[in-house]
Amino acid sequence: MSLPPEFRPADTGVIHDIGYRGYSGPRLGRAYAARSLFTQSLRAAYGLGRSGKSKVLPMIVLGAAVVPAVIIVAIAVMSASDDLPVDYAQYLSSIGLVVSIFLASQAPVLLSRDLRHHTVPLYFSRPITRADYVRAKFGAMACAQLLLMVAPLVVLYVGSLLIKLDFGDQTEHFFYGLVAAVMYALVPTSVAVLIAAATPRRGFGVAAIMGYLAVTTALLGGIVGTSLDGMGPGEELPDATQWTALLSPVGMVESLSNGLFDLGDAGSLHPPGGLGLLVFTAVAVAMVAGSYRLLLRRYRNV
Amino acid sequence: MWFVSTVIKTDGLTKRFPRVTALDQLTVEVEPGVVGLVGANGAGKSTLIKILLGLAPATSGTGRVLGLDIATQGSEIREQVGYMPEHDCLPPDVSATEFVVHMARMAGLPAAAARERTADTLRHVGLYEERYRPMGGYSTGMKQRVKLAQALVHDPKLVLLDEPTNGLDPVGRDDMLALIRRVYTDFGISVLVTTHLLGELERTCDHLVVIDGGKLLRSSSTASFTGTTATLAVEVTDHPQDHALDASAAVRERLAAAGVSVETEGARILLVELAGDGTYDAIRDAVADLGLGLVRLEQRRHRVAELFTQGTEQSQRSQNTENEGSTADVAAS
Questions:
Q1: Whole-structure pTM over 0.90, yes or no?
Q2: Other C-beta atoms within 10 Å of B267: how many?
Q3: Is there a contact between A194 and A107 (Cβ–Cβ < 8 Å)?
């Protein structure tokens, strides 16, 4: 039998059986505990601190999100191009599926597992409150998504500076991309987290979130596709079509970021007019705030 | 060690749900030591623990845990108290070490201290090599040990153990009870342990609190529950030659003549009141003089169970009298 590592002679020189020792060191309290839960959950979203198997999917997803950006930059550098073929926010919407897969697969990891294994009451027997728990989990999922989206944006930004594109312009658009990433990391996530908290079964959670995101995105895609069929080049989508972006949380964010920063070409999603921008913003905020409220209620009696 | 006169103190604690009253005017004081909280399923044990942890508000009444108010200082209480739930609570795909380190940090311990305390605590509860393996492969006994370890890892002043022997085989149960005893005697941590199995608490607890239907039936030291009138159970063989002799009756007469009070239990067993060492001598002499063999001579204590059933009957009686308009105080200890 080998010795437990902390009693290896190399560490202490002598092996003592010192019996029970109390703990008189610092107790860092509720805020620290909530931060610890946030960090642990953020790591768990990428499979860190979990089994080797659970790292596979997050790492593939991360690769799928970043590698295209690396390729784009590599081509631009080699061909001495004077522009990147894709804008930052536009890149985010093109990796939308990858981000959705990540969200659908990891939100239940963060929330359903605790319910399934009844770990939640254990957390609530510690200094943190129910609201701390909800904030830590919601925050961890949003940050995990943000990391996934910011990583390729940084690659693109560094690439654009390498090929000596206009610094001011690139920085401005990089910033637009970051804001869009924050919105993507909040709006669809809020609904996904709520769904994940509703079921202790991870499989159900994954299927429900993926189903919700895929169906709404496909629906919107179908509607936009039909509208585009009857239009000439350079024509803008009709307002009725633009409003349907509200159906899909991902489409709504895309439309909103296009509208806020005046991005995208004529055929892309935009909020219809000033009123549209207002409504889209209100719906996005309501979705996040409403989901948060419902989450708090969900854990009130656990 | 930490000294305090009362670990838990409740005053008229009441918890009403829309349909049931889970706790009804519960007034109890618990001193440092190993305290058993006894009650049938649904007696209000889990509700009491939830309220003591500051997780659910009481409908009325007040309570203090370690001198902290349960209504306003829940977070502070939970920092100083460990809780071992009744149900399974371990994620199967992480190791005991990782899990307990995480729970230590959730109790506010800095990362380095959390790792050190985890190694210590897991060793104390008897988990060695297996603590690096995922917990999904653990036996029930090992899982219970991890659950206990996560309740102890932050060196609390009080641990609340909810049915810690659930699902354990007899050996595992004895180990767990010995461990619980050590938590107080060696670690200096007060223990409140709930169970619906009464027998096992007699050996472990210093003090018992019996609740039923959310009401306090009795709160007193274990010795006063069980130790007051010890009896000896005696069983003898038939006489080897004289088959006509009723051996039990003969022993009984002899003992009665020697001034020992005897009752019968069934056809063969005599219950002899244990007055002192002289009682053993009287039994030995009586059996030897009659030329009989002694099959059984064992000490019987009044089981907690008996008192509990008495208590329950009493409370039912008191409820009846309450219905008639008068109140009886059954909670007096």
A1: no
A2: 7
A3: no
